[in-house]
Amino acid sequence: MEDCNQKYSCRTAKETLEWINAILNFIKPYAFLTNAHVTNFFTHKLWQSIDPVWLHCLRNEPVQNLLLIPCGIIQEHWPASLKEFVLDLKSLAFPREQAHLNKLFPGVNVVSLNTVLAQGMNFKKKHEVEVLSAVVSSVANSVGAQTIVDVGAGQGYLAQVLSFQYQHSVVAIDACSHHGTVTEKRAERIKKHYAAQMRKHYPGIGIPNVPKTITCHVMSIDMLKALTSMSPHIDNVKRPELIGQVADDKTSLVLAGLHACGDLSVTMLKTFLECKDVKAVVSIGCCYNLLSEGCLDIAGSQCGFPVSCGVKSAGISLGKSSRDLACQSAERWRSLEQDAGLHNFELHAFRAAFQMVLCKYYPEIIKSSPSIGRQGKALRRQQQRRILQSSINCDESKHSSMPETISHMQELYLNPHMSESKTDDYSGSALHSHELSCNGGARYNETAAASKYLLFEKFTQSGLSRLGLKSLQETHFHEIWKEAEPFAGLIGPYWSLRAALGPLLETLLLLDRLLFLQEQGSSLEAIMLPIFDPALSPRNVAIIAKRI
């Protein structure tokens, strides 16, 4: 799909390479951002690498404006250089607006799933399966494929819709044996429903097929190629539209993957090229952080990035931090409410301050790159549970003294409108009006700062416990937070600017895959297409290729 306002195109290998080179030239000066990790914000003083004029401007911006930066939305009062940075990013990133599928796949019909097929799916998954199944079915029909292989099938949602609703022969493969068992049990339940319906409305027609499931712990090109020797056919449900479309008795396959993780999406593309029985591939990737990298000089390497000759010749290496960053979704940032965005920034501040604790008091732990889990989610759930309790109005607060217990202070912290100190103000005029209405700004700032410190202490105690480390004296927590707090207000601007590079890095990874296919010449056609609503499914770009 081409955006009429898009500066770059990827219709040909030459155009795709030009786009890739433009991205590489743009990101080189910003390696200090793409290679950084917000965990080290305080320990490495990361804010010092940002233009101080940009920081001065952004630290006073309402949080909602910061959340719009990754989408390429600017404010008129910003410095010209900052506006240019954000707009250049937007012009280089692949557009994510959902494509008009009917224009690209004539006759495609996205059908809403019935309650039987949709059982167990959340709204996001239902949307993805509805759209992708229609696209894959259309592609399979266009190449006369006998079988569709659902790669990384998970619980088999896509495979079952392709089998029961579109009546394709389907093989579902996944590395997890539990997923295979779940897929089979779910398919049998669906089969009973469809069998009853067919006996009632179409007597004499056989029982529908269920997807065949395969568990494979190592998903490799050789493994996928081995599937071509399998030829599962539909035994009972006949498909007249395919009769005569297959010229010989060979198996013809379509590979499909809904968010096939890490290297698996790339493995699908390589299998498509190496195995002539695979007539088409529809791949939607995810988990770029799990891609293998660094095999530029190894002939026949199976690394996930880079795969195209064009990108390999550039000698580019992204690294894990940059690949992590490619997973950031501009649409998700835009959809955050102000309070959620604010809370997100605060959690990053806690984690970065916790890193200071580790560096100072547990230096041996730093060498092992510790992971303390998703404490942010736990704190966010706490916030949601306490949101009703934190609706204590200002009239009540006027008649009470400053809370002395941790639980009361946490309630104040978890009230989104009372969570920012004077030097960490993202909520703009609404925050100031709240200050003035509640017994004076000085008391507010003192209470907010104290409650924020207590949350940091709780976060740190939990992190130390998860790492199996002995706790510290309270004075040590105070010492760390006192050092970090004056700069905590800069995390929001820094993280927003860094996240804005995420869609550009994802574009680079996807264009590398597209170019890899385009470099094979005129024997195939390949396109890159956003097929999902990006607000529902941020990883919405499909790479679709078929032999011609």
UniProtKB/TrEMBL annotation:
Domain Methyltransferase: 124-293
Pfam families: Methyltransf_32
Signal peptide boundaries: none
Domain of life: Eukaryota
Protein name, entry field: Methyltransferase domain-containing protein
